[in-house]
């Protein structure tokens, strides 16, 4: 298993959390909104349509009932007036005191019955008896009947009692028969209908003044409904459909019907609040049922979406763990079958990737062993060459340090050291050059006056070998020429620093330094040529300070 | 210590004042926002039933038509008008309870009190509750020249007896029989007092109802003419009774008798033919024609005196409301400063005591019609 695979679930979750801030729309949130819209909107529409339909149905039923009631009351009023006109007709057929008294007792709504002569003088009066002999020629009921037609007056104050009344008049050849009606009887008849106290039933005359009302006090006050459009409409049509109007200080649903044969209008009204209550009685349970259903459906959808979200998270964690190399992260198994299939595929994929990775790792390990072996063998071979050069030096009895054989041997030793360090390190391609430099200095310089300062520096093999050779040449050169004279030990300084993408190698000694205008390139020294050539190879630069000391500075990119 | 205490109290009270101001402003804001959509309630009080109901019933028709028309035009200052009515049932004892009901319903002004006796019964109440009363028809002279909460768009009838006296003098009549039905005492006194100083009162016959009138005594009075002070129905009936009993002298009527249009003619028939009276409205004025047509279209009948006067009263109320009198206090304040307003026919002026000044028309019943003879100057 790779290093990434060793991360725990918490690390993965933490990484996932960072992934949560990548932006974009939340699919789960979108699905929740979609579910709310898909469930909520049709439900809301259904509620509105249902309530509207029920309201219309209630309204239609109420309209039908009230119009029927209004027509029925209008018919009753018409029959009532017809019967009293019939009484007048009877009186006109046989005008006289006896008939007048007989009729007034037979028709209780007659407050007063009068026989008026053609000049407008009241000849006889049964009832109040207050106007006998009066000239009533200027009253509407006389003037209309005088023209030859029966007449029903507008509501007016009774001359006898000051209560609102209406007059009926009928002409006959000798005069006019006049009846005055007690409107209270009409109101009492209406009040006897089994109505609820809040319902209104009324009859108005052609001028809109109430002539009957379930609350007779309103007739007594001569209240008027002429300004109501329903009243005007009903004067011209048989019946007016229910209207939602303000009436008697409250909002009512009012129906009206014209009294057949007369300019009277019957109205039936009931508080609109009653219809509202009926609708509310239906609406409240409907609303609760709908809200309940919607809530359940929405909760179910929310639950499903929550589990889908969890499955998504589980799959995401699994995938993320695979990406990080953790093929065995224990994650919760998805709830939904479809996600389990995907999880299974992820598992198969993880196994396949792990297997491939394992095989690659094995192959890489084999290659590493091979490379180490190569480095080992190169080092061994180089050490063999160095040993051969040492033997040759001893054979020639020329073990002069710094001689050509010795220099060659040292160079080969420097190369061998590089390969040795490489196969000993974990990374076969790079080595710690600072450690190499210290080891090289210790091998070459057995002096107490060695000053070595290094900063950590990793170099690949392509640079490590030239740098190692350069260091070898310069240190060897310092050992050779660094002393100021006999009996004086050379003092050698080695400094390796790193800054701004460049490494700087400084090697100095306390020798006499280089002569003025010394040019290493034209010195004819193999070592100098080798150093310059290697510096060029690593794309570096060099500087030589020769006054009072010898100081090489090599600067190269890393 | 005392000073510090005083200073402390000063700071405290200034904070309290600031808090009160904020609360007051908040309350006002809430009040304004709450009242913005509510209709402005105009009270209408009168006897809508009983003996004196003719005036109020006609007045109510006019007021309802006025309110409907105003509301159809957008109301006043963006608010609808609402008419709240309350009935005295021709009983002065019912006046205060009825007015109290209107007050509790939020009326900013009470229009009505059509009969002087009803208006007189409401005076103390109006002054006590500080609510303006605007009467369309209460014309008793006793209301004149008083700085109170009573206003009227009708002129005092104080000049009516002077007109009668002048007419009697011009026709050589000296002795006047007065017949009155005791239903409107302040109004009756408006006539009887000045007349007693101008002509000879041959007799003053009164009764609580028509049945109480002693006609035999009337016949014995040896008067040159008779004055009937009663509403239209009663005046017609009294005239009929007088004529039936052979009283053939000229008749004078109080303006009250003609408040119900030609109702007095319907009631009195030929008995009131030639009757003479003065009145503040001449329905034949061309300026009234549109209103008469509008009223007729609505109710099928022409507006009578009470309806026209009530229309004028509503005009005054609307004028004050439009000037910002949207609550009782400001209504009274603005009304008190109002010196004229546009009525149904013309500009009507008000004096400093809130009494209207109008023309007085001399009218006579001729051929069963009320005919205007001219103005009484």
Please supply descriptive tags for the structure shown above.
heterodimer, A: 558 residues, alpha+beta, Beta-Lactamase, Heat Shock Protein 90, six-stranded antiparallel sheet, five-stranded antiparallel sheet, 18 strands, 53% helix, rod-shaped, disordered N terminus, B: 377 residues, alpha/beta, five-stranded parallel sheet, four-stranded parallel sheet, 12 helices, 19% strand
User: In which range does the helix fraction of chain B lie?
Assistant: 40-55%
Radius of gyration of chain B: 24 Å
- What fold name goes in the CATH topology slot of the domain at 25-293 in chain A? Beta-Lactamase
| Strand count of chain B | 15
Structural class of chain B: alpha/beta
Largest sheet of chain A: 6 strands, antiparallel
Q: How confident overall, as mean pLDDT of chain A?
A: 84
Low-confidence stretches of chain A: 1-7
> Assembly type of the shown chains?
heterodimer
| Form type of chain B | globular
Largest interface: A-B, 28 and 34 residues
Q: What is the CATH class of the domain at 25-293 in chain A?
A: Alpha Beta
For the termini of chain B, the CA-CA separation is 77 Å
Give the helices and strands of chain B as they follow along the chain.
Answer: HEHEHEHEEHEHEHEHEHEHHHEEEEE
Structural class of chain A: alpha+beta
Q: Tell me the CATH architecture of the domain at 25-293 in chain A.
A: 2-Layer Sandwich
Distance between the termini of chain A: 32 Å
Number of helices of chain A: 13
| Number of E-type strands of chain A | 18
Structural description of this entry:
The complex is a heterodimer of chains A (558) and B (377). In chain A, helix 1 packs across helix 8 (272-323), helix 9 packs antiparallel against helix 10 (404-424) and helix 11 runs parallel beside helix 12. Chain A is α+β, with helices and mostly antiparallel strands and 558 residues long. Chain A is built from 13 helices and 18 strands. The longest helix of chain A is centred in the N-terminal third of the chain and has 67 residues, at 27-93. In chain A, the strands form four sheets. In chain A, strands 1, 2, 3, 4, 5 and 6 form a six-stranded antiparallel sheet that branches. In chain A, strands 8-7-11-10-9 form a five-stranded antiparallel sheet. Among the domains of chain A are: 25-293, PAS domain (Beta-Lactamase); 440-558, Heat Shock Protein 90 (2-Layer Sandwich), CATH 3.30.565. Mean pLDDT of chain A is 84; it is low at 1-7. Chain B has 377 residues and is of the alpha/beta class. In chain B, helix 2 (53-72) links the parallel strand 1 (40-46) and strand 2 (81-87). Residues 1-16 and 26-34 of chain B have low confidence and may be disordered. Classes of the chains: A alpha+beta (558), B alpha/beta (377).
């Amino acid at each position: 298993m790779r290093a990434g695979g060793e991360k725990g679930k918490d690390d993965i979750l933490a990484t996932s959390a960072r992934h949560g801030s990548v932006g974009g729309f939340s699919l789960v949130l979108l699905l929740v909104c979609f579910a709310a819209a898909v469930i909520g909107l049709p439900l809301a529409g259904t509620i509105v349509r249902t309530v509207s339909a029920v309201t219309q149905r209630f309204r239609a039923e109420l309209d039908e009932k009230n119009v029927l009631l209004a027509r029925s009351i209008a018919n009753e009023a018409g029959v009532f007036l017809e019967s009293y006109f019939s009484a007048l007709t009877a009186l006109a057929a046989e005008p006289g005191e006896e008939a007048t008294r007989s009729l007034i007792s037979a028709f209780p709504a007659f407050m007063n019955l009068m026989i008026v002569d053609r000049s407008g003088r009241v000849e006889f009066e049964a009832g109040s008896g207050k106007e006998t002999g009066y000239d009533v020629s200027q009253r509407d009921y006389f003037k209309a009947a005088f023209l030859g037609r029966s007449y029903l007056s507008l509501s007016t104050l009774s001359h006898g009692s000051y209560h609102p009344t209406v007059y009926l008049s009928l002409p006959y050849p000798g005069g006019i028969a006049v009846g005055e009606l007690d409107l209270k009887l009409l109101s009492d008849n209406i009040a006897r209908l089994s109505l609820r106290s809040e319902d209104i039933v009324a009859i108005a005359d052609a001028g809109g003044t109430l002539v009957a009302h379930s609350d007779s006090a309103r007739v007594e006050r001569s209240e008027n409904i002429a300004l109501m459009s329903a009243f005007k409409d009903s004067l011209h049509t048989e019946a007016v459909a229910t209207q939602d109007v303000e009436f008697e200080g409250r909002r009512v649903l009012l129906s009206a019907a014209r009294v057949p044969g007369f300019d009277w209008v019957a109205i039936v009204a009931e508080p609109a609040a009653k219809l509202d209550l009926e609708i509310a009685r239906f609406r409240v349970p409907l609303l609760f049922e709908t809200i309940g259903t919607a809530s359940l459906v929405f909760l179910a959808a929310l639950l499903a979406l929550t589990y889908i979200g969890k499955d998504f998270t589980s799959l995401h964690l699994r995938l993320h763990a695979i990406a990080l190399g953790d093929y065995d992260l224990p994650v919760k198994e998805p709830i939904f079958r479809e996600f389990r299939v995907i999880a299974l595929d992820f598992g198969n994929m993880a196994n396949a990737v792990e297997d491939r990775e394992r095989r690659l790792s094995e192959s890489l390990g084999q290659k590493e062993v091979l490379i180490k072996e190569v480095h080992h063998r190169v080092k061994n071979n180089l050490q063999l060459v160095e040993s051969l050069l040492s033997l040759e030096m001893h054979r020639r009895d020329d073990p002069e340090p710094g001689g050509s054989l010795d220099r060659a041997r040292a160079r080969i030793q420097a190369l061998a050291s590089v390969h040795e360090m490489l196969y000993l390190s974990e990374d076969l391609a790079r080595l710690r050059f600072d450690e190499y430099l210290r080891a090289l200095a210790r091998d070459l310089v057995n002096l107490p006056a060695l000053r070595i300062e290094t900063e950590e520096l990793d170099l690949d093999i392509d640079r490590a070998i030239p740098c190692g050779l350069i260091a070898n040449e310069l240190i060897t050169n310092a050992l050779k020429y660094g002393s100021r004279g006999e009996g004086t030990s050379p003092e050698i300084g080695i400094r390796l620093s790193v800054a701004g993408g460049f490494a700087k190698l400084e090697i100095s000694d306390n020798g006499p330094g280089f002569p003025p205008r010394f040019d290493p390139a034209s010195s004819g020294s193999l070592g100098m040529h080798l150093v310059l050539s290697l510096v060029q190879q690593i794309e570096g630069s060099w500087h030589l300070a020769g006054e009072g000391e010898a100081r090489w500075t090599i600067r190269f990119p890393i | 210590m005392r000073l510090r205490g005083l200073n402390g109290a000063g700071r405290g009270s200034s904070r309290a004042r600031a808090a009160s101001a904020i609360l007051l402003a908040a309350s006002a804001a809430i009040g304004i926002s709450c009242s913005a959509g509510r209709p402005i309630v105009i009270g209408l009080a009168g006897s809508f039933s009983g003996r004196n109901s003719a005036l109020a019933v006609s007045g109510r028709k006019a007021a309802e038509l006025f309110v409907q028309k105003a509301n159809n035009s957008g109301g006043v200052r963006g608010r609808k008008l609402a008419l709240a009515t309350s009935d005295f049932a021709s009983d002065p004892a019912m006046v205060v309870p009825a007015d109290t009901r209107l007050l509790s319903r939020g009326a900013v002004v009470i229009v009505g009190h059509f009969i002087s006796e009803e208006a007189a019964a409401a005076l103390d109440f109006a002054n006590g509750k500080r609510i303006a009363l605007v009467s369309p028809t209460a014309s008793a002279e006793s209301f004149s020249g008083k700085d109170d909460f009573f206003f009227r768009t009708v002129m005092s009838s104080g000049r009516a007896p002077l007109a009668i006296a002048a007419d009697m003098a011009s026709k050589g009549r000296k002795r006047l029989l007065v017949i009155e039905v005791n239903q409107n005492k302040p109004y009756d006194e408006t006539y009887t007092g000045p007349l007693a100083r101008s002509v000879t009162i041959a007799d003053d016959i009164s009764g609580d109802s028509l049945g109480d009138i002693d006609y035999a005594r009337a016949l014995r009075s040896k008067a040159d003419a008779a004055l009937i002070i009663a509403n239209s129905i009663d005046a017609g009936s009294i005239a009929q009774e007088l004529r039936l009993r052979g009283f053939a002298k000229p008749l004078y009527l109080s303006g009250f008798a003609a408040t119900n249009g030609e109702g007095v003619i319907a009631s009195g028939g030929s008995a009131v033919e030639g009757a003479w009276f003065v009145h503040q409205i001449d329905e034949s004025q061309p300026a009234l024609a549109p209103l008469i047509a509008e009223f007729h279209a609505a109710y099928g009948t022409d507006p009578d005196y009470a309806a026209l006067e009530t229309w004028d009263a509503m005009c005054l109320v609307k004028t004050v409301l439009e000037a910002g009198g949207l609550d009782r206090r400001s209504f009274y304040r603005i009304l008190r400063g109002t010196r004229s307003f546009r009525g149904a026919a013309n500009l009507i002026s008000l004096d400093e005591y809130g009494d209207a000044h109008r023309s007085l028309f001399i009218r006579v019943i001729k051929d069963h019609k009320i005919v205007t003879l001219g103005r009484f100057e």
